[in-house]
Amino acid sequence: MPIVNRVADLQPDIQAWRRDIHQHPELGYDEHRTAAFVAERLREFGCDEVATGLGGTGVVGVIRGRKPAGKGDVRTIGLRADMDALPIEEATGLPYASKASGKMHACGHDGHTAMLLGAARYLAETRNFAGDAIVIFQPAEEGGAGAAAMIKDGLFERFAIDQVYGMHNGPGIPVGSFATRPGPIMASTDAVNIHIEGRGGHAARPHLSIDSVMVGAQLITALQSIVARSVDPLESAVISICEFHAGNARNVIPQTAELKGTVRTLTPEVRALVGKRVREVVEGVARLTGARIDLEYVPGYPVVVNHAAQTDFAIGVAKEIAGTGNVAEMPPMMGGEDFAFMLEKRPGAFIFCGNGDSAGLHHPAYNFDDNAIVFGTSYWIKLVENTLAA
User: d(Cα 266, Cα 231) in Å, to the nearest integer?
Assistant: First the structure.
């Protein structure tokens, strides 16, 4: 497979960086050690500019090619990796397992960061491209909208980024393979927080109470009817109520109940429809039961929408690295990604790099497969060299 030969030579260093980051996981907006580690490496590599503090703890490196881009060409390409870990207790038993109790790199951001560092080292050594390569190390992908924070701090304007690309490891996809698709690839992620105020009382006299548990149960059932009966069957939507807190005694009807959940959709139109129907269902159940129901509907990450031309280009690069038979068009996923904010601002594409038969993302036994390093790093390099052909 035509991985970049120099990357194979660099693999031990990239693996060592990855394992060091893995041992020292940091949660969103607290990636101070990781950001310092990244900035130090970028300066060592000879990047033309290293900027810190974007979006809180974000780091950006600028690598200029041997000559400026031609007039009318793509002049600047952005490559993004996320740096934050998750509040999960690691259960891998690895010699380089997390040293921070209750925190671990359970989503492979340690691998993403290390692979982009490897690409930055190679690109700074060779500079075999025309224009600028911008390496973006982002904080707080895991629910903190670090991408939006970096954009707010002027990421695209300050570094004049024309196109932007993201990559994530994919458990279940063979190592040495890639998967992506044009159009929607990952879902929007909106949050639902519901407070039910009923009338507490004795379990033996329910007629004198407004049972917050029953109201919550009716509400959960009614919300599921939105996907079943309001959304076109050919579209995708998920409503999952994952928290239900009420009561503390078997013979007391609780006064209040709390529900929390998530809404996932793949188009702005379905996203708006589901949001509207959730509000209507909550109002209807409140009228039906006599309870007071307060709904907090919190917009989260938008849909990740790959741009067609850039996705085709990314697929071509991936095939160059992995071979035609090892690049698949995948169905959309209902998981979310804040790279969506970047793709709303600039054309680009998001791709998955195989992590093999590993535990799933966000699982205590998950581990990034170091055998994937040469493929992901080579992809970044060829993406730059092919986009900014000298």
Answer: 12
Backbone angles phi, psi at 294, to 5 degrees: -105, 125
- Alpha carbon 165 to chain centroid, angstroms: 13
Q: How far, in Å, CA of 363 to CA of 91, rounded?
A: 9
Are residues 388 and 65 in contact, defined by beta-carbon separation less than 8 angstroms? yes
Angle at alpha carbon of residue 256, lines to 252 and 261, rounded to 5°? 125
Prediction pTM value: 0.95
Nearest Cα residue to 190 out of 141, 238, 150:
238
Residues 6 or more apart whose Cβ sits within 8 Å of residue 117:
14, 17, 38, 41, 42, 135
pLDDT, tens only, 31-85: 999 999 999 999 999 999 999 999 999 999 999 999 888 777 789 999 999 999 9
The Cα–Cα gap between 320 and 32 comes to: 36
Judging by DSSP bridges, how do beta strands 178-180 and 304-306 pair with one another?
unpaired
Encoded tokens for 108: 């492979």
Q: Token pair 């209902």 is at which residue?
A: 334
* CA end-to-end distance (rounded Å), the chain: 24
Query: In sequence order, what are the residues at sequence separation of 6 or more whose Cβ sits closer than 8 angstroms to the Cβ of residue 78?
Result: 134, 136, 155, 156, 159, 161, 163, 164, 165, 342, 346, 348
